[in-house]
Amino acid sequence: MKKFVLIGGMSLSLMAIAAVIVFRTIAAKESLERLGAQVSPKAAKSLQEKIDAIKNANETSSHTRAPTRIEISEIELESYLLFSLKNDIPAQIDSAEVQLGPDTVALDTQITFGPNSTGNPMVDSLIGGTHNLFLKGKLVAEQSRGKFDLQEIHVDGIPVPNILIQALFKKYVKPKYPEADLNEPFDLPWGIQELRLEPGKASVIY
To answer: How confident is the model at residue 33 (pLDDT cuts 50, 70, 90)?
Structure first.
């Protein structure tokens, strides 16, 4: 059980990153068909350009600017996770499937922890190897405020009890994201007013 708790703690870091992805992978006005339904470096690069574009829009926009609505897809999110964030995650992401639903985001992934992933030989011996992780949470974001609730984590098909989530979050996520809090709403970045999660896509209004 200790092994699964440790892996679950590391997976919480991944979920925190996934939550950040939802806000930072902002789509521009080009259609999703132009990206194609494939995970690729091209799609990840395109999202980075879109992130920069929305940042610039927020910095230069006037108060009279009409709200803009754009969309992102699951493929785009997967591409950004696999190619753009690989150096920010303390493990190798072998595969990733992002699942968007009504007010929910889930990540089904296979991840490999190397022999020196954490720098702690004892921890590395426990979590080393390849594991399947599934993480799911509810995300509601409107009126420039958001609330994320982590609902479940499974490690190799075994659920991590909810009673451990807060403790794991504090131990593994808070040191890297000090402002993160599972219980508190947060301000949406870059002038985003609303984020709507639907089956297969997320709509952003800013």
So the answer is: very low
